[in-house]
Amino acid sequence: MAQKPSFTPVASPVPVISPLFCTPHPVDLAMNKKCGLCPVLFPNFVVKDVNGNIVFKVKHGPVQMSYYASSTQRVIFDAAGNCIITLRRQALSARWEGFRGDITKAKDLLFTANITSRAKAKRLDVFLASNTAQEVCDFNVKGSFWGGSCVIYAGESSTIVAEMRMKCSVRTCLGYGKYMVTVHPNMDYAFIVALIMIVETLYD
């Protein structure tokens, strides 16, 4: 029998990026896709809190070219314009990496995330940098990605740490979009935004 989802918050803060992004209460965020030169292929995002204050900005980083393939980047900035994390998709791979700041070196690796397909559904398995064995994921993302919703769980447990739903409209089809995210207490909400940015590529 499948485990029922648990809404019990994690017992202590989980500062994947920084303890500054962990709070003892739930955090609700609105992630708005901005129209750029080509919003579908190179989208930017503005992330706001419930009061309309900008919390993060997400920009499409430079595409790293090689003789064989290219790799994609997304960069997340805080409200002051400081780069807090760089996301990079490895060329010819379904694997993403998250690095602290704007340097993509091994010593700055925070986590890796693998997109897998199981029973006609896509899933994201996330491994923190300290989990070198990668036998069991530290977090996983499940849901109806094309249906516009997903849930982030702690490890392989039924404990929910965040939820995302997409507000659909005609503008969504034109390259715009709005995601509503609820991050549960003690969870690093900057880290959750990073995972949602990876999930968002499944729509592209």
Task: Give your account of this protein's structure.
This protein has 204 residues and is mainly beta. The chain has a single domain, classed as Beta Barrel (Porin), CATH 2.40.160. The chain is 8% helix and 43% strand. The chain contains two helices and 13 strands; from the N terminus they run ββββββββββββαβα. The chain has a twelve-stranded antiparallel β-barrel. The longest helix has 12 residues, at 189-200.
Tell me briefly what this model is.
By secondary structure, the chain is mainly beta.
What secondary-structure arrangement, pairings included, does this model have?
Elements: E1 27-34, E2 44-48, E3 54-60, E4 64-65, E5 70-78, E6 83-89, E7 95-100, E8 109-118, E9 121-128, E10 139-142, E11 149-154, E12 160-167, H1 170-173, E13 177-183, H2 189-200
Antiparallel strand pairs: 1-2, 1-13, 2-3, 3-5, 4-5, 5-6, 6-7, 7-8, 8-9, 9-10, 10-11, 11-12, 12-13
Describe the structure using short key phrases:
204 residues, mainly beta, Porin, 2 helices
What is the radius of gyration computed over CA atoms, rounded to a whole number of angstroms? 16 Å
Number of helices: 2
Helical amount: under 10%
Give the biggest sheet. 12 strands, antiparallel, barrel
Derived from helix and strand composition plus strand pairing, the structural class reads mainly beta
CATH homologous superfamily title: LURP1-related
Poorly predicted ranges (pLDDT <50, ≥5 residues)?
65-70
Mean pLDDT: 84
Q: What is CATH's topology name?
A: Porin
> Helix and strand succession?
EEEEEEEEEEEEHEH
Strands, total number? 13
* Strand order of the biggest β-sheet: 1-2-3-5-6-7-8-9-10-11-12-13
Q: How many structural domains does the protein architecture include?
A: 1
Family: Belongs to the LOR family.
